[in-house]
Each structure stands twice: as structure tokens, then as C-alpha cells.
Specification:
Blueprint: H1 3-13, E1 18-24, H2 30-43, E2 48-51, H3 62-75, H4 79-91, E3 98-101, H5 104-110, H6 112-121, E4 126-128, H7 138-146, E5 150-151, E6 154-155, H8 162-168, E7 174-177, H9 193-203, E8 208-211, H10 217-224, E9 229-232, H11 234-247, H12 253-268
Parallel strand pairs: 1-2, 1-9, 2-3, 3-4, 4-5, 6-7, 7-8, 8-9
Helix pairs in contact: 2-4, 2-12, 11-12
Length: 269
């Protein structure tokens, strides 16, 4: 059974909602990414999105763009490096599911079959490719299913009549975009977000998770009542950005990790 399914089944039996942090791999460096993943699990994360740094991101706002620029500028990190962080995290004792968040071009450049062999061997349970529309995802979807890796689609309030078609092909969960535009902290969400989430809920038996713009415990709590999972990206990446001066010194590294863990524990509630 896929670890994402196991995690959602456990949370449902406990009456809980998944907290799913997003972090950019290699920011500030690969070894620290493993330490951050360990910290997130200890702070209450139920699964983690591993963001692959990309120079031309479609969905990422300025905070995550800066994280990608740091990772690419200082470390020249590759998609293979990001996937291997999952294996290193498992060796460090992390048990929660990993979801790789990447764009299609790095996957295509690596080679589809070789990519899925690598993903499967390193313990990745889910895959999000925001620039791969369902009309063109058949080859990737079939390879993902063969590797027992859930291809998780995004649906937005503007998806409208495509919500049902997209949700029917989903595996693991359906990622509901709370706001139009790129990722980033927001005070308000799309008008009609509640009706949109209800529409997605009716379209699928899978868990639904909401993301984009969620940054506080109050906002997480608002969506816990409607969704099976809440995804927080930019607010956590910004917390990591603020902690980089501490993370870069051996004397203050633990203080930096604590700062990140405390924020995620606060989100968890």
C-alpha cells in the first residue's frame, strides 16, 4: 500500500487532518535539507512536499523562487539530488510519506523510465507536476501507477467542468488551489472557496488537501474542517530563509532548526 494512503487512513480514523509542509530541497544546502525534514516530522508534519528547485517555475511565488535561486546558485542541485534526499532522510529515521513537487522538463530531461525507477527506489510516494495537464499525462500516469507512485493533480476554482475529469484520474489526494496566481502568503482566499471545496469533495472519494497562501494556525484551522489535508509552503520556506544565518553556523544550527520546528508545531496546533 502507498504510504500516502496509509497516512490518510490513519488520520481519518483519529479524526485528524494532515499538515503537509513544502520545503525547497538544497536550501540552504543538501545536508541541512535532511535536518529540516527530520525537524518537520518531529514538529508534527504528516507528509512532506520535497520541492525541486527550478529556474523557470510556473506556480511558485517570490519566496519559493528565492529559495530555488539560492539552491541552484550555491549548490547546482539536480532532480536526482532532490530524490536522493528522500533516501538520506529515511536513513536518518524519517518515516512519513514524501511527495516530490517538480516541473515536467527536469523529469523529461532525466528520462521518464529512469526517473520512475529512481523515484521508486528512493522512497518517494507521490508526485506533483503542476505544468503537466491531464490531457497530456497518460505516459507519466501509467509509469507512476506501475511504480506505485501517486500522481497528484491540482484543481483550481477556475477548473470548473474539468474538476470531475481531473479528480477521476487522481491518486493519493486531490490538491485544491485556494487562490488564483502563484504561491505566497495571503490574507484572503478566492471568493467562493468553500463552494469550490465542496464541489471537489463531491467529485471524488479520495482525500482532498488545500494549499496556496496558507500561513497561520488560524488559516490551517479554517480549512481543517473541510479538508483532509492542509499544505503550507511559502510561510515555511520564508521561516527557513529567516533562519539561514543560524543554520549556516555550527554553533547556532540547532537554534535555527528549533525556529523552523516551532513554527510548524504552531501550525499543527
Amino acid at each position: 500500500m502507498n504510504l500516502i494512503d496509509t497516512a490518510f487512513a490513519r488520520l481519518k480514523s483519529e479524526g485528524k487532518t494532515a499538515l503537509i509542509p513544502f520545503v525547497t530541497m538544497g536550501d540552504p544546502d543538501l545536508a541541512t535539507s535532511v535536518a529540516i525534514i527530520q525537524t518537520l516530522e518531529k514538529a508534527g508534519a504528516d507528509m512532506i512536499e520535497l520541492g525541486v528547485p527550478y529556474s523557470d517555475p510556473l506556480a511558485d511565488g517570490p519566496v519559493i523562487q528565492r529559495a530555488s535561486e539560492r539552491a541552484l546558485r550555491h549548490n547546482s542541485i539536480t532532480i536526482k539530488d532532490c530524490i536522493e534526499i528522500a533516501e538520506q532522510s529515511r536513513e536518518a529515521g524519517v518515516k512519513i510519506p514524501f511527495i516530490l513537487f517538480t516541473y515536467y522538463n527536469p523529469v523529461f530531461q532525466y528520462g521518464l523510465e529512469a526517473f520512475f525507477e529512481l523515484v521508486q527506489s528512493k522512497g518517494i510516494s507521490g508526485l506533483i507536476i503542476p505544468d503537466l495537464p491531464i490531457e497530456e499525462d497518460e505516459e507519466v500516469r501509467l509509469l507512476a501507477e506501475a511504480a506505485n507512485v501517486h500522481l497528484i493533480p491540482l484543481v483550481a476554482p477556475t477548473s470548473k467542468d474539468r474538476v470531475t475529469r481531473i479528480s477521476r484520474k487522481a491518486k493519493g489526494f486531490v490538491y485544491c488551489v485556494s487562490s488564483l496566481g502563484v504561491t505566497g502568503v495571503r490574507a484572503d482566499f478566492h471568493t467562493g472557496i468553500d463552494e469550490f471545496l465542496s464541489m471537489v469533495r463531491e467529485a471524488t472519494d479520495l482525500p482532498i488537501a488545500v494549499g496556496f497562501g496558507i500561513s497561520s494556525r488560524e488559516q490551517v484551522a479554517r480549512f481543517e474542517k473541510q479538508c483532509d489535508g492542509v499544505i503550507v509552503g511559502s510561510a515555511i520556506v520564508r521561516t527557513i530563509e529567516d533562519a539561514i544565518p543560524l543554520l549556516n553556523s555550527a554553533d547556532t544550527r540547532e537554534a535555527g532548526l528549533k525556529q523552523i520546528g516551532d513554527f510548524v508545531a504552531q501550525l499543527k496546533g
